[in-house]
Amino acid sequence: MKQSTIQYKLVMAGTGLFLCFFLVIHLLGNLQLLLSPAEAKEQFNWYSHLLAGNMGIKIISWVLLISIIAHAVYALILALKTKKANGTKYAYDKRADVSPWTSRNMGLLGTVILVFLVIHLKDFWYVSDFTTMTLDKQGYKDMYSVVVLTFHEWWYVLIYEVSFIAVGFHLLHGFFSAARTLGLYHPKYVKLVRYTGWVYTAFITGGFMLIPIVVYFNN
Amino acid sequence: MKIYLKIWRQDNPASPGQMKDYQLDDVSQDMSFLEMMDLLNESLIQKSERVVEFDHDCREGICGQCGMMINGRAHGPLTHTTTCQLHMRSFKDGDTIYIEPFRAAAFPIVRDLKVDRKAFDKIIQAGGFISASTGETPEANGILIAHAIAEAAFDAAACIGCGACVATCKNSSADLFTSAKITQLALLPQGQIERTERVIAMVDQMDAEGFGHCSNTEACEVECPQEISVLHIARMNYEYNKAQLVQH
After folding, report:
1. CB–CB of A183 and B237 under 8 A?
2. Who contacts B8 (Cβ-Cβ below 8 Å, separation ≥6)?
3. Which of B9, B166, B213, B236 to mutate to test the interface with A (most CBs of A within 10 A)?
4. Structure confidence by residue, pLDDT tens digits, A2-49
5. Strands B3-9 and B114-115, how do they pair?
6. What is the complex's ipTM, to 2 decimals?
7. What stretches pass through the bilayer (chain A) (predicted)?
8. B46 to chain A, minimum CA–CA distance in Å?
9. Confidence of residue A202 (pLDDT cuts 50, 70, 90)
10. What's the rounded Cα separation, in Å, for the pair B216 and B222?
11. Taking CA atoms, what residue in A is nearest to B222?
12. Does residue A199 fall inside a structural domain?
């Protein structure tokens, strides 16, 4: 069946909101890294072990992977459709004056995030699932030391920080845009969703940005 | 005042077209933008050159015929304004003004600044109507409509179909245009009978015409001469999603 542009957007909105939800859980878990090194090590390794052994988490992680791929593939399809719909470019284009930068650059921001995800998955998922890891004194994989080692170099912290800024701008537009695509049109709730989006974005972006810096200075 | 113009010239839909330079030495600040274009065309006629073709009709901002990209903005530098309601006082002596047609694959160029907006008509033909028998005028209180609903429907109906929403959209989306008509009819009791079929037919036609998707940049609302709200787009999405769930 041929999909309409709205159906494409629904896939973007659905997967996007699922990823938004995931980010909350991901951040809440990771906030344990803000504890003092000794405490964080014990807590975080226990938490990582808990997640790794849980079947539900495994299923969610597959849904997560599918969501990321679907979100990226559909974005690419829509970008190609747009290229076709636009036709000839304007010789002089000032259309950017009338819309926010983020709303026009979701593709660019998304690409930065995708590149970051490859780095991020290599840093942690690959190391924990595909390499032999040292165990801590509780007998759990020592994920905390992997985190510390990753954020040992300042420039690596910087890569993460820049990526989180891209995530932040992506969320700023994505969150409210998804609500619109789903059909939220009541002026009162539209406003509420926009404010919620701002608070959500500030929480997620701020939280994630804090962690590498704290880990860097704590160790 | 002196005005330098860079205008898109294209002989026919198939020819390539290019930006050409013109100069007007005696433009009055009181002229409307289209009067300035008339002045240019008169000078071209005197030189026996082909005039710059552009669409226009009422020249009082209500018909939706005129529309150009002026200095990279749909209908020029002002917001919520048609091209004909733009005046030369918005420009300075010695300014260079870029004038291009509204661009979108679904709006093929007929000649110069004139584009074919038939795609809009086809979207309306797909469902932007009610199949009511047109007998005698019914009793005025026969169908009661709350004032707020009537106003909201009228706000949506105010769309003049100029195409600025498509031209300013980074995706060349016709969502604002299509959604305005869908909302207008979805709000009124007369529109209920074909509500489900209408939204699906009109969205499908919009896609078939080759318009892009909506990214919610909200640029269209800024340029729209009638200030049609982007919330109509959200409402169209709601109508569409609901129709997908309930259609047979």
Report:
1. yes
2. A91, B17, B18, B19, B20, B99, B100, B101, B112, B113
3. B213
4. 789 999 999 999 999 999 999 999 999 999 999 999 999 999 999 999
5. unpaired
6. 0.92
7. 59-80, 101-121, 154-176, 197-217
8. 28
9. very high
10. 12
11. A98
12. yes
A95, part of any domain? no
Find chain B residues with C-beta within 8 A of A86's C-beta.
Answer: 103-105, 170-172, 212
How many CA atoms are closer than 13 Å to the CA of A187, on its beta-carbon side?
A: 2
As beta bridge partners, residue A40 has none
Domain boundaries defined on chain B: 3-100, 118-246
Domain extent at residue A203: 5-81+105-218
Determine the Cα–Cα distance for residues B153 and B187; give it in Å rounded to an integer. 6
Which residues in chain A have their CB less than 8 angstroms from residue B242's CB? Answer: 183
CA angle in degrees (0–180, nearest 5) for B35-B37-B38: 60
CATH fold of B3-100 reads: Ubiquitin-like (UB roll) (3.10.20)
Query: Domain holding A19: CATH number?
Result: 1.20.1300.10
Encode pLDDT of B180-234 as tens digits: 999 999 999 999 999 999 999 999 999 999 999 999 999 999 999 999 999 999 9
- The reply to whether A73 touches chain B by the CB within 8 Å rule is no
Residue of A nearest to B236 (CA): A183
Tens of pLDDT, residues A149-176: 999 999 999 999 999 999 999 999 999 9
Q: Is A54 on the interface with B (CB under 8 A)?
A: no
CA nearest to A106 within chain B: B215
Residues in chain A with CB shorter than 8 Å from the CB of B210 are: 84-85
Q: How many domains does chain A have?
A: 1
- Tokens found for residue B73: 């903005």
Residue range A100-153, pLDDT digits in tens? 999 999 999 999 999 999 999 999 999 988 888 889 988 899 999 999 999 999
Pick from A10, A90, A173: CB nearest B72:
A90
**Ordered alpha helix ranges (H), chain A:** 5-30, 37-52, 55-86, 101-104, 106-120, 127-130, 143-150, 154-182, 187-218
Using CB atoms, pick whichever of A90, A94, A97 lies closest to residue B103: A90
pTM for this model (two decimals): 0.94
Give A162→chain B minimum CA distance, Å: 24
What pLDDT score was predicted for residue A2? 76
Please, what is the Cα angle at A138 between A147 and A212, to 5 degrees? 15
**Is A22 inside a domain boundary?**
yes
* % of chain A beyond a pLDDT of 90: 91
Average predicted confidence (pLDDT) for chain B: 96
- Paired sense of beta strands B69-70 and B95-100, if any: antiparallel
- A112 in any annotated domain: yes
